[in-house]
Amino acid sequence: MSRKPVYTKEQLVGQLKKLSKKLNKIPTKKDFNAAKHTASTQAVKSLFGHWENFLKAADMYIEPVALIPKKEVIEKTKELSQKLGYIPSFKELDSLFPHNEIRIYFKNLDNLIAEAHLEEPRKVCKKRALAQIQALTVELKKIPSMKEFDESVHTDIGSFTAARLFGGSWHAFIEAANLANYLPKNQLEDSTSQDDKCRDKMIKKFQRLKRKFHKNPTIHVFDQDPEYGTKYLAQKYFGSWNSFIDAANTNFVFEEEDENEIENVKKQLIEEVIILANKLGATPTASQFVEATDNTYYKIKKYYKTWPSLIKDAGLDPVAESKRKRIIKQFLHLRDELGRNPTKKEFDQDLGTVTVATVLGYFDSWDSLATEAMKIAI
């Protein structure tokens, strides 16, 4: 059974129009996401598909206009490709066509490349890049760095261009060049020994982060940590990120904690959840807590088994009860403004944080909300 959408199309269109009036322009996705009292763009996507369809439903869509003829776009792309010696990127073409001509005529860069017949020059460029790094490896008697590749008088392709030709990764370029065949035998042995040291460093970093966050670190967390190791090095030394995780988790064990350490962690969790509750003005959900702090779901489960157990120890109202209080508070606030009980439509149009759809998840009916709110008001 599919889950009923929290918002209707009419509600989302109403939010967009209200935001457009406030900003005095047609809102972008970024504007809509940043606004305090609007749904997420994921909700928009689930109901409208593309952002363009959403704008059309609100009568805000403006058809883009191309200022450069299609034939001229193809010719200019060919000229730039010939000048650079490789197929230009979307960013490099953007300066030539500032009015979205590529999207209007071709939808994407691949279609433009196909119509301009640029695939063959790309293959030739890849062969030249491989030949140049292989020759430089023989000359230096080691695998060149990106800087050495750029500074060599024997190369006429930049390191970033070479990397882009092979999927955007310098290491993918190095692997494609099969440079082990161009290194002296003793250098190859030294390189193998160095590779083992690098693998050990990366595994230690992974395990340290896993002990800190009580779960496998994500690629983003791993890359942001200043210690040696990145996603691309994981691909280079282990073949893939998943293979690296398997290697790092082999024989891995969490260190035992004594009772004092456990109590200190539990006390810290309680302090952090109380601080967040005071900041939000309500009991936070587990997802709000994880998003706002450095804690993880695994850590909560490890020390408290369940989220309600942590909330109870912190002396806070259960999440559902806290939500009911916020709904009643918004209802009474709107009632004070209007001088009467608000209708469902007026409640939805209010810039509060709760909608009628949410109300019906916590109260039997709209009338039961009004009844409970009146008891508090009296």
The number of strands is: 0
The total tally of domains equals: 6
Q: By helix and strand content, what is the structural category?
A: mainly alpha
Distance between the termini: 42 Å
Q: How are helices and strands ordered from N to C?
A: HHHHHHHHHHHHHHHHHHHHHHHH
Name the helicity range: 55-70%
Give the strand content: under 5%
Rg is 29 Å
The backbone outline, from C-alpha atoms, is: flat
Distinct helical segment count: 24
Largest sheet at a glance?
Answer: none
The whole-number mean of residue pLDDT values reads 80
* Poorly predicted sequence stretches spanning 5 or more consecutive residues: none
Descriptive account of the structure:
This protein has helices at residues 9-23, 29-34, 41-48, 51-57, 70-84, 90-94, 101-106, 109-115, 119-140, 146-151, 159-165, 170-177, 185-213, 219-224, 231-238, 241-249, 259-280, 286-292, 297-304, 307-313, 319-338, 344-349, 356-362, 366-377. By secondary structure, the chain is mainly α. The two termini are 42 Å apart. 19% of the residues are buried.
